[in-house]
Amino acid sequence: MQVLLFQVPPKTEKQLTQRLKPHGISVRTVSREAYTTPIGVLLGLRKAQHVLPPLGFTFAEPMLLMHGLSDRMIDTVLAELRAANMRIDLKAITTPTNLAWNAMQIYAELQKEREAFFANRK
After folding, report:
1. Based on the number of CB atoms within 10 Å of its own CB, is 90 exposed (0-12), middle (13-18) or buried (19 or more)?
2. Residue 51: its pLDDT value, please?
3. pTM for this entry
4. What's the order of all strands across the beta sheet hosting 2-6?
């Protein structure tokens, strides 16, 4: 069970690590240089076949990606975020499809989903 963090301040990473470690969930910050690496490769589930060169891309806001967590553990992560007043709006879980994506693709998809959500609320 692992949580990957993107564009998250070190203080937030430390707090989240302290809160999730007792639940058996590891936390890791992904460097900007690895944003073009497929998520499955970052997690050690797949071998790198075609990785784009690092682009130095940064996100406008933090993103959190959960891997290997049960529904109950996902709820635990979300509860710990709320309890610590940590705001990370862009959150996702890994799927067989997005394991082949890189962080930039997941970020773009989450942005599109959020835009669609707010457009439908009007």
Report:
1. buried
2. 66
3. 0.89
4. 26-30, 2-6, 63-67, 90-93
